[in-house]
Design goal:
6-stranded antiparallel barrel, alpha+beta, 6 strands, about 25% strand, single chain
Length: about 150
């Protein structure tokens, strides 16, 4: 083999073996815990108890399901989109713990597509604070909801 080919073969062998050696170190102990926690996971853990699923029964059709956010834990007030409520006054709210409660639409604003729902419960609710109003284009956000009935996604 010519020297240039030997040199290239040596570099290729190192490039192939070094990642394998590094990977075997990581998998040498399969019982060693590897943390997959990151800031997004922590943010979801912190906020998901304040996110609810709003279910609006529709006769002859599939129920409308959307998401809402508890913003006043003492009075049980939830904010959601008006289009989620489908113009109905009575609906169902599923808390993060899986319990279903009756909800009543107490206020709507069609221009802003917002609705306020009230639930009555003895359970301890988790309210979420709203973020800054001056979000920048390109700034990271997380959306947690119940699209198509997939709760807390």
């Amino acid at each position: 083999m010519r020297p240039v080919q030997r040199y290239c073969a040596a570099i290729l062998a190192c490039a192939l073996l070094v990642p394998f050696a590094d990977a075997t170190d990581k998998f040498a102990n399969p019982f060693q815990k590897v943390s997959r926690t990151n800031p997004r996971v922590e943010a979801v853990k912190k906020t998901i108890p304040g996110v609810v699923a709003v279910r609006v029964p529709r006769q002859g059709e599939k129920d409308m399901v959307g998401a809402g956010v508890i913003f006043d834990k003492k009075s049980g007030l939830i904010v959601t989109n008006r289009h989620v409520t489908g113009g109905k006054k009575q609906l169902k709210v599923r808390l993060h713990d899986g319990s279903d409660l009756d909800g009543e639409v107490v206020s709507t604003d069609p221009d802003l597509d917002l609705a306020i729902i009230r639930i009555n419960t003895d359970k301890t609710l988790t309210e979420l604070r709203f973020g800054p109003a001056d979000m920048m284009v390109g700034e990271d956000v997380l959306a947690i909801g119940s699209p198509y009935g997939y709760y807390a996604t």
